[in-house]
């Protein structure tokens, strides 16, 4: 675990304890309840990091009902109990290394809002570069990191007002780029999930319909794919030629699949 001195994301008392230690030292500290009241929240964040989740509690798909229940629970029974009845705690700390501010590269969750917004175009551009190189999984990581930054900043804005909408537009672009990568990685059902969610909230997103149509085509959902392709043309007639090409390819694939199945059943009963 890393602690950034002066960053209140961790317990303030930990910073005091570390200041008394030498590199390589292991020490045990008993801390009164006056210093441990925030530990359940800190522990929740650390556990989320260990699980590969965003410690700031953002989920790409979280319904209002789930958020309502999350308000009353930390999601871990032991932490809920500790939150109800705070206790003195013993911390065993080993100081492994000390880095100066100029040497330390912070994770995106540790950045302030301005730093997060500055990081987004850099991450977006890096994701685009990796996509062009065919490094789709690496690109998704960059897009995901940028999304976490934007979503975290957006939670501090009032929904549907101008600043919130500007961030929402940037978020939608990144999700669509993320879905393009998933399509190349053949993660078709995840593409369907994300694009459907986008369409529900923003029914005018042409690219969302196009990517969902492509994903539907790949999993043999011919009817759904054609409906989405038709919607693309309705929203953007300039896409007509490309859509016609996609539909021809889909029909050819469906015909080949049908012929393969006929041959399979013929051999089965011959």
UniProtKB/TrEMBL annotation:
This is Aryl-hydrocarbon-interacting protein-like 1. Residues 1-97 form the AIP/AIPL N-terminal FKBP-type PPIase domain. SUPFAM superfamilies: FKBP-like, TPR-like. It is found in: Cytoplasm; Nucleus. It holds the Pfam family PPIase_AIP. One of its GO terms (cellular component) is cytoplasm. One of its GO terms (molecular function) is peptidyl-prolyl cis-trans isomerase activity. TPR repeats lie at residues 206-239. InterPro entries: AIP/AIPL1/TTC9, PPIase_AIP, PPIase_dom_sf, TPR-like_helical_dom_sf, TPR_rpt. Signal peptide: none annotated. Keywords: Cytoplasm, Nucleus, Repeat, TPR repeat.
């Amino acid at each position: 675990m890393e602690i950034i001195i002066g960053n209140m994301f961790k317990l303030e008392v930990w910073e005091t304890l570390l200041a008394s230690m030498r590199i390589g030292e292991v020490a045990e500290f008993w801390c009164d309840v006056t210093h441990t009241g925030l530990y359940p929240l800190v522990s929740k964040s650390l556990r989320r990091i260990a699980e590969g989740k965003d410690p700031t509690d953002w989920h790409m798909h979280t319904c209002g009902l789930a958020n309502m229940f999350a308000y009353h629970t930390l999601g871990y029974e032991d932490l809920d109990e500790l939150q109800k009845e705070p206790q003195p705690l013993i911390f065993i700390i080993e100081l492994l290394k000390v880095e100066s501010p100029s040497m330390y590269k912070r994770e995106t969750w540790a950045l302030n809002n301005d730093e997060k917004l500055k990081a987004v175009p850099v991450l977006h551009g890096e994701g685009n570069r990796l996509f062009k190189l065919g490094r789709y999984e690496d690109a998704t990581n960059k897009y995901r990191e940028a999304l976490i930054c934007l979503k975290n900043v957006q939670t501090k804005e009032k929904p549907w007002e101008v600043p919130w909408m500007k961030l929402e537009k940037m978020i939608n672009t990144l999700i669509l780029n993320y879905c393009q990568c998933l399509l190349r990685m053949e993660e078709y059902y995840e593409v369907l999930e994300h694009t459907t969610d986008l369409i529900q909230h923003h029914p005018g997103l042409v690219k969302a319909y196009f990517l969902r149509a492509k994903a539907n085509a790949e999993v043999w959902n011919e009817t759904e794919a054609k409906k989405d392709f038709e919607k693309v043309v309705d929203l953007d007639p300039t896409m007509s030629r490309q859509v016609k090409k996609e539909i021809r390819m889909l029909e050819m694939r469906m015909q080949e699949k049908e012929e393969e199945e006929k041959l399979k059943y013929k051999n089965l009963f011959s």
